[in-house]
Specification:
The structure is a homotetramer of 375-residue chains.
Chain A: E1 6-12, H1 18-28, E2 33-39, H2 44-53, H3 66-74, E3 82-86, H4 92-101, E4 105-108, H5 116-129, E5 133-135, H6 143-154, E6 160-168, H7 181-186, H8 189-192, H9 197-213, E7 217-225, E8 236-243, E9 248-254, E10 263-270, E11 274-278, E12 284-288, E13 294-298, H10 306-309, H11 322-337, H12 347-365, E14 371-372
Helix pairs in contact in A: 1-11, 4-5, 5-12, 6-9, 9-12
Chain lengths: 375, 375, 375, 375
């Protein structure tokens, strides 16, 4: 017999917010869930209009605000099962908290919150509730990122020594037009938090590093900069890393790298092998050895791990992209909703991310002194 | 107010057929349609099981066969609007014809039919019915393929002189295991038609050439080969092309190119510029000029045509892949269903494809003599 | 004790001819030979000026013409050991013949001559004289091209089935200015022979195919075209190939591929593996397998054959280019001069090349009919 | 009339030292100079054997040691004009000083010396003597590196904000065999100086940054590491950079990046454009803009600067590599010897390099504190 699809709502993701459609597509891609309701904008009228025109929802499930969403959905027989939070950073905590208290599972955009403290409080609420919580560090959903993790875990690269991760964009290389909503909140401390570029994309780099290597950052020394005149938050930075166990590394992120689209890449070197992955060629993983030609592992191809093959949907050579990687998080979240495991970024990752962000800001304030990330 | 989604059914696409999920994902990706019914396998039991387990459909809309599908759906108030035909080649014609006669729009896998004649008969039925008919030459949905066409059309490359298109796979380099359904029908003349590799992927190369350049093949000289012992249909071939207007070119396709995944590429050279696209780097289009550095146009980036930008969904640098390209065909098909235009491969393309296939087979029989493709 | 360097002279290579310096650099690169004399231009004054200014030679070893060169050098105690022929195609035969008759070894630019017949006559002279004769199919000197040959020879790719080789340039996409000497003779039937693009670069493609695979072309069907108005020789073409033993393939060459610099590439597929090489990334050889990730062999790196390692001079990762590849031919020629073997293109290759050129011209005349290359 | 070639000698470069042949080839490549003498090893017997067998020199110009070389050559009518110093780092200073005092121009391997102080003393000697001094930061000889500098200088990229340069090798990822001479001195503080990886290749990265951007490092914070057990010098490190004028950046270098051959790359971002160069694709320079497709400038192709075109020797598409880049330094050095300008790394670069090396070591000792590089 057929099983019903999961039902979900969305907070944010209204007109002008590209990430709303990304969530909708990714969440529905595998046919396991459907968007049924939401509070899509802070303005009730815009919320309703967005829900109807962007998502073809009935007016009665387009709510005025997230409080109404959680309250009224809870009363329905066909209530949503989980909520997707796709709003500016400073609102994640309150909305997530309200959702959990309303009894809904949560999928939340990163960064998790505005502080480690907020993150830990959410952790407590989640633990008490038994609800599930996913954080959308979506780059971990690419098959070849999972292949990379699998390689590290297998031990064939030996003990990891050197990690470098770079995330470069150019779209904020100058002051954005006032009507650019994406730019507006990302460069506003009140809505984005203490970090700009590092809250937005630096935290993805940190999470990718963590995901693939499994290493914990012990301490870091950062030099963040706001290059664009008048900008209050960093738009560029480089961070030296020391990991527990002795590995070293560097994370760079920038939003003033003119002409760079969304260039996330990582290199990992162990005692006996190395790997390299770049989102712009997402279906390839370069693996290097001391004593033979380097190899290129490809999504779904022979010789890749079951773990990465499970994250692919179509035959090798049919490129899978950003949306499929994003969908992989949802697919694993659904597994977990069915109590069947599920491999996706969670609150531990979110709290680690908050700690990273707080630490790079703190180190920058201290003229790049080493800051410990004691957990 | 919100508009309802289009409803569609599927013929084929049951267990073991990867293309069924591709259609389902692509058709639903933009939130404009939903799969509601189907006849997913020739065996009624498997059809029902597939519909329920793969697509979460209710048993009463999983039909025993396509005849039942068309007949019973026609009686429902919530009947499907169109049907997707995802079956082996030899059945396309009959199913498409039945669907059209049942009053349903059609999205049909390529190649269109088993002969030019069948294609022309379908053309007649479509014209008489006023129904819409799309053929899934999905590679035309990539934004950078549309950018390529736009460049040619703009005239900046000058009159086109040389075109080469290559489509290489390796998966049939040896006799496939008997339980490989994908391989089984593709190498069986009864189900695949007179051409193997050229029916399957050579026709994609022909269509891509046609789509980007707008040129009509005037005549061709082909040398197809079946390399794998015991194989009855070509698994490799090269074709010389002469286009109306004087351009020349070559199409190569192979399924015995060991280690090649699904490597489709095209080069077009005009009097004043050239372009190069490769599916494995689908979001880049290389454009070459005589007197300045070559440029790389990227999906969604500044400097690309409105036509290609319209075929993208997410910001530049977020790779879009095979599924999104496939979805672009559906998006355009839906536009057309709403009588709002729509730019997708149709019966003209299908008939041109059949003519190409027939001609390469004919030329091979005649020891590579030139065969005219008079229309 | 130290050994003296070989001494060589040059015919051609005067002012305005880039290939003269290429020969001088390549021949001297490994410190085994030095240019000591020459007849650098058909005009005695220019010959002398070129020899003195371009090559820093004494006036008394800059000769009026090649006849004088061979005659006067033969009388010197410190006479040249061999001569390099770097003149337009139509003169190769006469000069080579005169050099051999004068008792000098020869290094000759390709194509060898203006006909198979001329080639065979040179072959006879060489055999009678016991002198050495090298033909500068320089692309065979790249370490990764030698790696490719070694792979084929080792048998790991299985029996070869499919070969495609493409050589695209754009520099003749329009009529060249009258003072472009390079273009002038290459597009002049009197000086270039019956083929233009195919005599110039198509023959390199043929030789590369022959070198790597060891296969003999049994028959071919060609369609050559002169696209640029007023041009008398082909500037573009595609050729279907059938090899002895059953392999098939295609060679394409063009000089009107706008924006292409000098893009030579080859793909070879056997029953159990495939390879791909491209001159623009000359130090990489892609090797593909059915059942594991593809590998990239790199000049000098672990896992490459002794044969290719012997063709490299510097540690891996220090790119070696065109001049080093060219020098590899000379290095092997010197080995042979010392009667120590030597692996370089010779008169057999030259005659095969002439037969290829004659055949593509013949097939084109016969509307692409298959032409046998019986040897 | 012809001009005589420059004559040069070499110190070091004997058996087992690949860099000796690199110098010989590069210095002679353009036909402007010839090796005539040398002291090729610290052992007189090996010196003589190397000179005769590797370089085909007469025994009487293979000297016992560099003192003899300078003294005896000075007395010859056909004395060498300049000397190439290709010895381990700790001997550069003494040999260079002796050469200058003997009246010979100098081409010296990098790093210049063992300290800034030594560098400044050499500077004084050079200034007093009027002799020429070149330092072989050879990567500055690549045409596309010169194109990059030209782009920055032209101002089209705007004021530079962000620079990152990475130089990764893997060959020292484990303890080298005892008989590996290359590894032995590079990992020995007595012969290599206070820095290992950063003295060897980090200083190339610093110089490339300096060459392309023209920026001076104001201060740096470094974290160098010796990963391989028992190793006394760094084999890996990352350095935060602050440049005069406000730009920021990072330099990474490693010799334990398993499988990396010799991967030097640099990215530079200004207010209005960015560029990217990678030695493994040395003939391409990627240039990015905010509002149009990115472009790839290619060695010698239309649209590149006269400055970079002057650094090329052969037509576009004929790859030029490491040896040609190295030769470009010599070509410029010869220009300068003829008092005709000449654009090559000199003692200013060498002293800046020594200051960089001293500072990264100092900062590492101080737990990555910022160290000023006041000049």
């Amino acid at each position: 017999m057929s099983t019903r699809k999961f039902r979900f709502g969305m907070v944010g993701g209204g007109e002008g917010a590209f990430i709303g459609q990304v969530h909708r597509i990714a969440a529905e891609l595998d046919g396991e869930a459907e968007l049924v309701c939401g509070a899509f904008a802070s303005n009730p009228e815009r919320s309703r209009r967005s829900g109807q025109s962007l998502y073809r929802l009935h007016a009665d499930r387009c709510y005025d605000n997230y409080e109404a969403l959680f309250q009224l959905e809870a009363n329905r027989a066909d209530a949503m099962d989980f909520v997707v939070i796709a709003t500016p950073n400073h609102t994640h905590y309150s909305i997530a908290r309200a959702a959990l208290e309303g009894g809904f599972h949560v999928v939340c955009d990163k960064p998790l919150a505005m502080s480690v403290l907020e993150g830990e409080q959410l952790q407590n609420v989640v633990k008490a509730s038994g609800l599930k919580f996913a954080l959308t560090h979506n780059y971990t959903g690419y098959p070849m990122v999972r292949e990379a993790r699998s390689l590290v875990n297998s031990g064939v690269l030996g003990k990891i020594r050197r990690v470098s991760c770079e995330y470069l964009q150019g779209w904020l290389h100058e002051r954005a037009p006032d009507d650019n909503k994406q730019a507006a909140w990302r460069t506003d401390p009140a809505r984005s938090g203490a970090a700009g570029c590092f809250g937005d994309i630096g935290s993805h780099a940190e999470n990718l590093t963590r995901f693939i290597t499994g290493l914990e950052i012990e301490s870091l020394a950062a030099d963040l900069t706001a290059f664009v005149p008048g900008r209050l938050l960093d738009d560029d930075g480089n961070v030296l890393l020391r990991f527990k166990g002795g590995a070293k590394g560097v994370i760079s992120a920038s939003q003033i790298a003119v002409g760079k689209e969304n260039d996330l890449s990582i290199q990992v070197y162990g005692e006996t092998g190395g790997l390299e992955w770049r989102q712009s060629d997402a279906n390839s993983l370069i693996v290097r050895w001391p004593d033979k030609p380097y190899e290129v592992r490809r999504t779904g191809w022979a010789g890749t791990s079951p773990e990465s093959q499970a994250a692919s949907r179509i035959p090798p050579g049919h490129p899978e992209g950003y949306l499929e990687g994003f969908a992989e998080l949802y697919r694993n979240f659904y597994k977990d909703l069915s109590d069947d495991g599920g491999d996706y970024p969670n609150l531990d990752d979110g709290i680690a991310g908050m700690r990273f962000i707080e630490s790079v800001v703190e180190s920058t304030k201290q003229n790049s002194a080493w800051v410990d990330l004691a957990s």
